[in-house]
Amino acid sequence: MKNSINSHLALPPAKLILILLVSCATAARGEELADKFKKLRKSLDQIQAEMEKLRMDSQKVQPKDAMKGTLAERLTNLTLRQDELNKLRDSLLKELKPDRPGVKELMTESLALTSNWKEFTSKIQEFVMSSGETTKVVKAEKQPGEKEPTTKASTNVEKPDEQPSAEEIDIQLKDKFRDPELVVKPETCGNCHLNEFRSWQLSPHYLTFKKMHRKSKAKRIAKDMGIRRMKSAALCQKCHYTVMKQEDGSLKAAAGISCESCHGMAKNWLAIHNDYGKGSNKDTESPDHQKWRIEETTKKGMVWPEMLYDVAANCYGCHTVPEEELVNKGSHPAGSSEFELVSWLHGEIRHNFFVDNDKRIGHMISGDNKNAEATPGRKRLMYVIGRALDLEYSLRAVAKATEQGTYLKSMAQRVQNVTEFLKKIRATMAIPEVDAMLAAAGSVELKPNNPKMVKAAALKVQQAARKFMMKHDGSKLAAIDSLIPGPEKYHGSFSD
Predict the structure, then answer these.
(1) Is pLDDT at 399 greater than 80 in this prediction?
(2) Nearest-CA neighbor of 81 among 51, 58, 53?
(3) pTM beyond 0.70
(4) What is the 8-class DSSP label of residue 256?
(5) 3-class SS of residue 452
(6) Using CA atoms, how far apart are residues 410 and 408, in angstroms rounded to an integer?
(7) Residues 80, 325: contact at Cβ < 8 Å?
(8) Residue 411 contacts residue 334 (beta carbons within 8 Å)
(9) 333 to 70, 337, 342, 406, 407: CA distances (angstroms)
(10) In angstroms, rounded to a whole number, what is the distance separating the alpha carbons of residues 455 and 400?
(11) Which residues pair with 251 in a beta bridge?
């Protein structure tokens, strides 16, 4: 092992860090963690470089120049982003466990090579040096990039968790396919989806870009939070705008909540999405090619309408407003208390120019320009999944609470409210997944500084919701029809 350590010491610091991570993590998670840390480090390095450039630019500008404030605001946004990435890194660090002989020695001897990222290495060193855990692995001398053997492991191998940790889920949910560099803007989508684009232009999601920052309530919140321009503030951008990266590296709001806010940033999958096969169009595309196109675009981050849980998760990620300081300090509303998936998706933001048929939900019928309601079966799925997501994201919001106050009180009340709705579903018909959701919610105390237990409960709710989606198409859920909001309760006016 000593020889292996010495050979590692000759590697560049970046390469060495990845090896350390693979060494410190369990065998099943080593390469995944290494990849996550590699991306994090790259992002942090880029942010640091941008911040240094902004500081230099700021020194060149006269104190009274209007550009001075703009540069300062961009620097503030970068600082916020840096803080977010650091928190993300810290959550990953909690997973690290020394499981191989010589790891401690390797860590100690390599610190000199990683002095350019002292905080990172010191955190790892502290963890490794303080931990006495060891875990046997199938192959102690596994090299970086080498795949795990496919043969059955020996009985002394620690079995990796079959389900991701609550921290992992947070990471997966946060910024999934949300890179501003991947945004193509809604006008690009509108080139083909003209009806949907026109419908979006009449919606609050579109008007946010023009009107949100002008509202007196928004101005007051921004002032309380020390925000000069909403469109440039990271705290506001992530829920109220579609953000694109500019040539100078800054992040700029390009639109309100738009196509890519719900269906994923499109740059990586747009060309595939538009490919119907040689000599074919959307009406003549073969079933095999359609299947390939759906699979490939999904891999690259597209969220199809059929992926109800994933689409709706984007809604609840913002409509719960999981920002404690924003609520307690800025007096921002603690979520949309009346948000319910069926009524909101059938109101002002409805853009359903597709119909259900034998091929798949969402297949377009040429020439059908009717902005239709969802089918009864689809509404049933929406209703149950909407309540499930409300519970999951309300729990995730509670997990972020660090003090008593309006934020915690509101989020805890939200959990209690949606629990009552789920109980009504259970009273109407037996759905095991709903029982699992209620059990998860009832297993935790909704109090400050209880993130581990509450996020674990949220994860159980998510697992139950996804299991429900796999088992049901809505056809056997007619018993809950009386619970589903009708047109009289749709959010906002809508005219066909």
Answers:
(1) yes
(2) 51
(3) no
(4) S
(5) helix
(6) 5
(7) no
(8) yes
(9) 27, 9, 22, 9, 9
(10) 9
(11) 245
Evaluate whether 444 touches 410 at the Cβ level (below 8 Å). no
pLDDT at residue 176 is higher than 80 = no
Helix axes 376-399, 406-428, angle to 10 degrees: 150
Tokens found for residue 265 = 């940033």
What is the Cα–Cα distance from 326 to 335, expressed in whole angstroms? 11
CB atoms within 10 A of CB 58: 16
Q: Which residue has the higher pLDDT, 388 or 24?
A: 388
Contact yes or no for 160/27 (Cβ under 8 A): yes
Rg (CA), the chain: 25
In angstroms, rounded to a whole number, what is the distance separating the alpha carbons of residues 388 and 105? Answer: 47
Closest among 325, 316, 333, 313 to 469, alpha carbons compared:
313
d(CA 183, CA 186): 9
Q: Which of 51-60, 279-288, 358-367 is modeled with the greatest confidence?
A: 279-288
Q: Is the pLDDT of residue 38 over 90?
A: no
- The answer to whether 195 and 371 are in contact (CB under 8 A) is yes
User: Cα angle vertex 138, ends 135, 140, to 5°?
Assistant: 70
* pLDDT top residue among 50 and 357: 50
Q: Are 314 and 261 contacting, i.e. CB atoms less than 8 angstroms apart? A: yes
pLDDT in tens, 66-121: 565 666 777 777 777 777 777 777 666 665 554 554 554 544 444 444 444 444 44
pLDDT tens digits for range 461-493? 999 999 999 999 999 999 999 999 999 999 975
Burial status of residue 275 (CB atoms within 10 A of its CB: 0-12, 13-18, 19 or more): middle
- Interhelix angle 432-441/376-399, nearest 10 degrees: 20
**Is 120:114 a contact under the CB 8 Å cutoff?**
yes
Mean pLDDT of 136-157: 36
3-class SS at 253?
strand
- Strands 251-255 and 242-245 come out as antiparallel
Residue 240, SS3 per DSSP: helix
Q: Which residue has the tokens 């968790």?
A: 161
Q: What is the per-residue pLDDT across 218-267, written as a single tens digit (0 to 9) for each?
A: 999 999 999 999 998 989 998 999 999 888 878 889 999 999 999 999 99
Report how far Cα 399 is from the mean position of its chain's Cα atoms.
16
> What is the distance between the alpha carbons of residues 93 and 88, in angstroms, rounded to a whole number?
9
Nearest to 83 by CA among 388, 296, 325, 309: 325
- Helix, coil or strand: residue 390: helix
User: Rounded to an integer, what distance in angstroms lies between the CA atom of residue 169 and that of residue 65?
Assistant: 44
Q: What is the mean pLDDT of the chain?
A: 77
Ramachandran assignment for 82, one of left (phi > 0), alpha (psi -120 to 50 degrees), beta (any other): alpha
